[in-house]
Amino acid sequence: MSNRSIPNEPHHARSGGPHPGVLAIVSLGIFLAGLITSAILTGGQTFVSPFAPADQVAAFFQQNIAAARVGGMLQFGSAVPLGIYAATVYARQLRLGVRVPGPAIGFFGGISAAIFLMFSGSVTWLLGRPEITTDATLTHALSFLAFITGGVGYVVGLGLLVAGIAVPSLILRFMPRWLAWTGLVIAALSELSFLSMAVEPLQFLLPVGRFGGLLWLIAAGFLLPRNRAAANEEPRTAGTARR
Fold it and tell me: Averaged over 98-120, what is the pLDDT?
């Protein structure tokens, strides 16, 4: 997995692309802005659960059209920097000499998470259309679709992205071991969240994977080395300090 024989790149070499840590902050910031804005527009109410009765779900969206539109729009927007993050980190891991399935798995997970989030945001935006919410059955079905794609689908994909970064980072020591292990725990909980499709009490795993995963991606984005020279620098420094 490690290929330390690859020649070190010059210290001034850049990996290219935007900074992944900043991308993760932007993605989380836009998503939180959507939650805060929706809460303001609904007068402090939380979005109704799709598991509520159909009439209650329809009534909520009929009364909170602006919140659904703005929330869906910002949710859609938060997926864009996440997809760019996945592509940037994938390219960086290849530059670092990681030649195992981990980076590809992470890339697949990140793109899947971004697509699911875009789809969920689009469906949520549809729930802000008055001509849609007049049909209680259709509104209820769309709320379930928004939940499953923006919840389980997104979190499972995000977990794969975290795992695809954490495993190589743990083995090759690209970041502190405690942080890599934390990423593996978050990734495992995110993957288990699919069980909430049948066991509703396990839905608590969704916010754990969503917010824990994004916070971890922020830290990883700032700590992941840019190139082989940067990756080798810390071990050499540590060895010098011990001497």
Answer: 94
